[in-house]
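Much of the work behind modern protein science is quiet bookkeeping, done one molecule at a time. The protein below has been through that process, and both of its lines are reproduced in full.
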Amino acid sequence: MPPAGFEVSTDNINFSNTVTVGAAGTIASTTVYIRLSQTANAGNYSGNIVLSSNGAANVVVATANSVVNPVPLTITANNVNKPFGTTLTGGPGSTAFSPFGLQNNETIGSVTITYTLGAASTDPPGFYPGTITPGNATGGTFNPGNYAISYVRGGISVVVPSGITATGTPDGSETFYGTPSSPGTFNVSGSNLSAPITITPPAGFEVSSDDINFSSTITVGGSGNVPNTTIYIRLAATTPVGDYSGNIVMSSNGVPDVDVNMPNSTVHPASLVMAADDQYKFQGQPNPVLTISFYGFVNNEDQSVLTKPTTISTTATTDSPVGLYPITVGGAEAANYTITFLPGTLTISLSPTSVQIPNAFTPNGDGVNDVWNIDKLTDAFPQCLVSIYTRSGSLIFQSRGYPVPWDGTNKGSPVPFGTYYYIIDPQPGAPELSGYVAVIR
C-alpha cells in the first residue's frame, strides 16, 4: 500500500491505490511501479510503502519527497452584447465565463463579475474591450488550490436593438363617401432590420409616406436602420358609409410587430340629387317620356348602385288642358347616398293647329277688320315669329311675339291689294304654320 497521494502497479499500465503480488509460497522477485496519482491535490508528498502478508512482518519502503504542482487554469469572461439603454449589474454567481485547463472533468460553479465602461444605460453604442472582469471562481467540483488561475477580461458590445419603433397617434377623422378624409399622422422608425417595414392599416383606410400616393399597404426603409418617417393615414374615397377603427400594423422579418391604434372614424353618405327633367308637349299629344338627371354620383358609379328603383310620374294625361303639371320623382335608395328628389314641370301648350288664322282683312280705315288679327296666337305662343312675304318672296313684315297686328303696310306705306304669304314659327320644336292672306281694299 502506497502513502497518500500515490498509486502503484505491477505492469506500469494499470495503477491503483493497492496491488497484490503472488500467492502463498515463494514469490519471485517482482517490479512494482509507484507514481503520484492524477487526482492528487497540489502539494508535497512522501512516506512509506507498506508491504504486508498474513503471518509475516510488514516491510516498509521509503519514498522520496514528490511534488504535485498547480495546473495553469485560464478563466475568461464571456463578451456581452448589451442593447443600448439597458444596464448591466455585476456580482457573484455569474456563469458567463469560459474555463481552459480544468483537469479530471472538474467543473467551476460560478465567478464574480465586475463591469465598468459600457455597462451603464447611457453608454453609447460601440465595443468596450476589457470592461468585464471575472474573479473569485468557486463552486463546482474543482479545488482552486490545484490551479494557478489566470483571469482574462471580456468586452461589452453596446448595440442598438433590432426592432420597430412607432410614436404618435393619428386623430380620428370623418368624410363623405367618395371623398378621402384629411390624413392623420404618426411616425415609424427601425433599427438593425433585415427587411423593410410593411405598414398595413385597418379596413377602410389607406396609407402613404408622402401624403400624395396612398394605397392599402406601403413599405418604408430597407435592411439596417430606418430613419424616423412620417406616415399619413386616411379614410379612402371608396370606403362605404360606416364607422371604422382598428390597429395599424407595422411588421418586418425577424422582429415583433408594432401596432398603432387608429381611433374611430366615420364615412357619411354622399349627397345625390335626382331631378325630374322639365318636359313640353302640345295639347292632345301623348305625354313625352319622362326622364331624370342625376347629380352627385361618385367613384364612377351610376344608377346600377341603386338598391331600389326610381319612380317618376305626372298627373297630366293626353287630354289634359293647357297648363303646368308637376313631374314627381322618388322611390330610389342607395347604400352610400342621401338622396334628394327635385320635381320637374310638364308644360302643355295650345297646339299651333288650333290657332285660327284669317286668310283676308280689309285695311281701308273703316274701323272694321283693318288689321290682320290672329286670335290666341300670342297667348299660346308669346315668342312666336310672324313673317309675311310678297308673291316674289320679298319679306315685307316680321314681328317677334306679334304684339301689334299687321296693318297692311310696308315701311309705312300701304301695300297693294293682293295675296301675300306668311310663315309663323310658334316656338322651337313646334311645327311651323304657313299659308296666304289676302289684302282687300
About this structure: The chain has five domains: 6-68, 71-159, 163-268, 270-349, 354-439. The mean pLDDT is 94. Residues 71-159 form one domain. Residues 189 and 228 are 4 Å apart (CA to CA).
